[in-house]
Amino acid sequence: MKKSLKCTKLGLTLSVLLASGVMANSGFANSVERENEFSLDPMIITAQRLERKDLDTPAMTSIITAEDLKNTGASSVFAALEKVTGLSSTAYGAGGEDYGAMLSRANLRGLDKGTLVLINGNPVNLMNYNSMLNVIPVDAVEKIEVVKGSNTVLYGAEAMGGVINIITKKSPQNTGGSVGFQYGSYSKGFEIGAYGEGLNVFYKKENRAKLDPANKLFDPKKTYTIKDKSNNESLFFNYDINDKLSFNYAYNDAKNNYRTAKANGTTTKNNFYYRTLQNAGLTYHDQNNFKSSLTYNKYKIRASGDASTIVDASSIYFDNQKAWKLRNNKDVLVGGISLSRESYEKGDKPTFDRDSAALYTSYTYNISDKFSTVLGLRGHFVKSNSYDDAQNIFLPQIQTLYKINETSAWFTNIGKSFEMPSTTSPYMYGKVSTFIKLKPQEGWNYEMGWKRITDTESLKIAVFRMDIKNKFKWVTEDTLRPDGNSKTYVQINNDKFKNSGLEVEYTKKINDVWQANFGASISDPKSQEKNKAWIQDDARLQFTAGITYRKDKLTANLQVMFLGERQTATNSYYGKHRIPNKVDLNMTFGYELTPKDNVEFGVYNLLDRANPTNTGEYRSLPRNYILSYTRSF
Questions:
Q1: CA-based angle 69:186:299, to the nearest 5?
Q2: Pseudo-torsion of CA 170, 282, 293, 81, nearest 10°?
Q3: In angstroms, rounded to a whole number, what is the distance separating the alpha carbons of residues 118 and 125?
Q4: pLDDT confidence of 3, banded at 50, 70, 90?
Q5: Most exposed residue of 339, 347, 402, 611, measured as fewest CB within 10 angstroms of its CB?
Q6: How far is CA 189 from the centre of its chain?
Q7: Are 512 and 542 in contact (CB under 8 A)?
Q8: Which CATH architecture describes the domain 2-632?
Q9: Reduced to 3 states, what is the DSSP secondary structure of residue 5?
């Protein structure tokens, strides 16, 4: 208890110090070549499917630029997102690694598996998981837009807590490339990039060291997990076929070895997992505001040793969108149609397919120069199959924006959202599959906020509430029928979920050299099983802060993240307890040796804490460093 209290005080103390300008993130604009342009009011595409300035967007937003990724030394998109205000994560290894079919994921506003990830505006979630986060190498990312609150009207299922849009770099007019090498205490690797004549190519390979232990050993008579050496490869390329048509492809291959061992280190099981992720997208976008896209996503996992997992999941999406400017360009009408098929196959069992179609529209009406409203509606239709009943769901949304002056605005955002059961559900049912028909989880999101954005600072404040019914829950089969298996988990509708909270983001450009920011999220995510007591679902407190120094050839960054009042841990060997608080302090330096040579050095988890990354208390890496060198040509 004393230790937990000390950790809480430490996290709050660091956050207060950082908020006063002692530490924070960067916010420099970015391109393939380093620029000095700076903007705290960037253009955002995700929130309304059209470009709008942040100040003109009626939603709480967070933007991570390529320069932010570089300055903070983020090893993956997943690692970068962990610092976003209001976002929590579940991971089984460094940078969002999976453990077999146990997938890492990022969640906005406390709702597990309720956040939709997009790549260049196209959905990439599979099996209700957003594990495609790491399919794109960090060096290929132009920026990441995080839009909180319901976005189901424009993007469909799974956008209940919000949307994360990973926007990749476009090829510049000039031709060039880079070669980089990294060496660290837990990883080493290299990366190659090339661009020119409409083509961008990035390749990265990383070898990771053994982590022992990978999780906490509670019962000395039982086992714990050791993560042995692993490797990870990523490939991404984007090709602009012409000024209207582009194609992108991403591939990620991970080979992991997890062992379970007794307290004395004796191995009891040796599990090998081979996982591949693929994403391909073809996009047509013309000057008449017509956009059409076709996206394919693929997840594949195989196992050997003592593991036997065999899973294939895929999805294909087709989306047509058109925008019209009305009333002398005062208003904008967006309309579109989406078609999708999700597929899942486990071992020798038959393939499960789910087909969906949707019509959506959004109308931005400017009542005056200061006040505007956005009315949205989506009709989402799911075809029945052997496991799902047909669904005809209508989702309304209304947003308002009041421009107080040129630098500040007040907004509201109210929308209905929903999510279909995971495509994995039929394969987990076992004996209950013949009589359980799952309903979508659905509910309402309410958000109200204020933004003030100038040339030197940005302050965003929002309060929100989420009310979800039919929340998905996994239980053992024997709790549903007498002859059920106590080791087989099945998905049911059994819960309600709600969350109310406050989010604050502040960024300050102190001068041409220093920039600081601070973020805070205070909320109460909880769920209820029938008429039982409400149970906490996620952390209640999150504080992030840091500082960036940039002058001449030197860049330095120091940042901290505190996660407190977390939910109850899975293991109760030592009694019911909360997951310990997470305090993550990182420091990075970058130096430009020549216009073409750069060196970077980062130290991560400076406090050397065994930070839990999920309810099973898997651990983040201990204190570690990475030294990297990049040569441009």
A1: 65
A2: -50
A3: 8
A4: very low
A5: 347
A6: 24
A7: no
A8: Beta Barrel (2.40)
A9: helix
Q: How far apart are CA 310 and CA 327, in angstroms?
A: 56
The one-letter code for the residue type at 260 is T
Task: List the Cα angle 620/624/627 in 5-degree steps.
Answer: 130
d(C-alpha 88, C-alpha 538), whole Å? 8
Q: How many CB atoms lie within 10 A of CB 383?
A: 13
Q: Residue 281: pLDDT band by 50, 70, 90 thresholds?
A: very high
Give the number of C-alpha atoms closer than 13 A to the C-alpha of residue 120, restricted to the C-beta side: 27
Residue type, 407: T
pLDDT per residue as tens digits for the range 194-246: 998 889 999 999 999 999 989 887 778 888 999 999 999 999 999 999 999 99
Six token digits for residue 616: 């099973």
By CB atoms closer than 10 A (0-12, 13-18, 19+), residue 351 is exposed
**Rounded Cα gap, residues 629 and 235, in angstroms:** 20
Q: Are 227 and 216 in contact (CB under 8 A)?
A: no
Alpha carbon 482 to its chain centroid, in Å, reads: 39
Q: Radius of gyration (Cα) for the chain, nearest Å?
A: 24
At 135, the pLDDT band (50, 70, 90 cuts) reads confident
10 Å Cβ neighbour count for 103?
A: 22
Q: Given pLDDT bands bounded at 50, 70 and 90, which one contains residue 572?
A: confident
DSSP 141-162: EEEEEEEES--HHHH-TT-SSE
| Rounded-to-integer distance, Cα 176 and Cα 631, Å | 11
* Residues forming beta bridges with residue 375, ordered by sequence position: 363, 398
Over residues 485-491, the mean pLDDT reads 77
| CB-based burial, 192-227: b 16+ in 10 Å, e otherwise | ebbbeebebbbbbebbbbebeebbbbbeeeebbbbb
Nearest to 187 by CA among 201, 207, 172: 207
Give the closest residue to 387 by CA, choosing from 426, 338, 420, 415: 426
624, β-bridge pairs: 604
